[in-house]
Amino acid sequence: MICKKIGIDFHGVLNTNPSFFRDFCHQAINRNIEIHLISGGPRETIAEFAQMNSIKYTKLWCIFDYFNAKNEVKFLPDGSFHVDDENWNKAKAQYCLKNNINVQIDDSHIYKRYFITPYCLYDEHSKTGIINGEMINFSHSAKLCLEKICDAVSR
Question: Cα dist. 150→28, 53, 139, 146 in Å?
């Protein structure tokens, strides 16, 4: 498998290490690798954060927007909202599968259960991730991390 599309979560990943992911996304896009920011939302917050931190991406997809467009969001009197938990938890995995994402970098153990797409479980404190049994150190250069991730998913 050649690494052509990488998904990156916002909360707990991108927002905890913006300078690294600015460089990582730049390296990827320069190699014609698509970057999909895949998150719960809200879309405006993520887009604004990416712009303020000069983080380039190919596509921004949010779970909330997806279910809201399908009229599956229930708005509650207190201003909060609800989407069926199982549907919410498997939405990223379905998006990645449908859009041929080669790897998702995410910090959620819950979402990981639903993935067929290779999943890099990211730890914001140690700045490390594990994909296909290989440790990725996100404290190293963005170029090296990108190469290691693409190598890991190509095996």
Answer: 10, 24, 17, 6
Residue 3 has, within 13 A of its CA and on its CB side, a CA count of 23
Q: What's the pTM value of the predicted model, to 2 decimals?
A: 0.95
Tokens of 135: 């440790």
Q: What is the pLDDT along the chain (155 residues), one digit of tens a residue?
A: 589 999 999 999 999 999 999 999 999 999 999 999 999 998 999 999 999 999 999 999 999 999 999 999 999 999 899 999 999 999 999 999 999 999 999 999 999 999 999 999 999 999 999 998 999 999 999 999 999 999 999 88
Q: What is d(CA 85, CA 83) in angstroms, rounded to the nearest whole number?
A: 6
DSSP assigned state of 35: E
